[in-house]
Sequence to fold (190 residues):
Amino acid sequence: MPKLWNETIETHRRAVRDATLDATAALVARHGLASVTMSQIAGETGIGRATLYKYFPDLEAVLVAWHERQVVSHLEHLAEIRAQPGDAGERLKAVLEAYALMAREHHASELAALLHRGAHVAQAQRQLKDFIRDLLIEGAEAGALRADVAPDELAGYCLHALSAAGDLPSKTAVRRLVMVTLAGLRAPAR
Fold:
């Protein structure tokens, strides 16, 4: 097959997959997880059910694929924030705040309970922990952040502390939680 034909088919497949994931997310948001069916997804996407089943064996597979796409998008966003100019402390604060706001936005739900048990989540958590650990190391080397606790431990502390953002009533409360978390990361006074 000519390369152009392969690219066209792959582009079409990607478009169908993306449309399916977008339609599923919209249906879940409108009707709740328990009410969504493969027939509704096919109808919303504008494809036949048989075609949908060629891409995904069941609803859970569609939801996991959608969640994987979301996780990748969130990690890319956090990586962009981490790469911004500024010292490690400023970038750490920006990454922690963005993560905490994401945690608040996507707090525990029936859908989250289903989706947060996959291998993609464990891998994403590791990447996120590495982002934070690297900023902690950089900040400790500059003398601004504590060096008396292993950076991997501190990164885990940050992630666990900020998971509480899902229960907070406002963005202001999330920012306070980030400030409290950052206070625990500052280098002890000599």
Summary: DSSP finds nine helices and no strands in the chain. The mean pLDDT is 88. The domain at 1-57 is CATH 1.10.10.60 (Arc Repressor Mutant, subunit A).
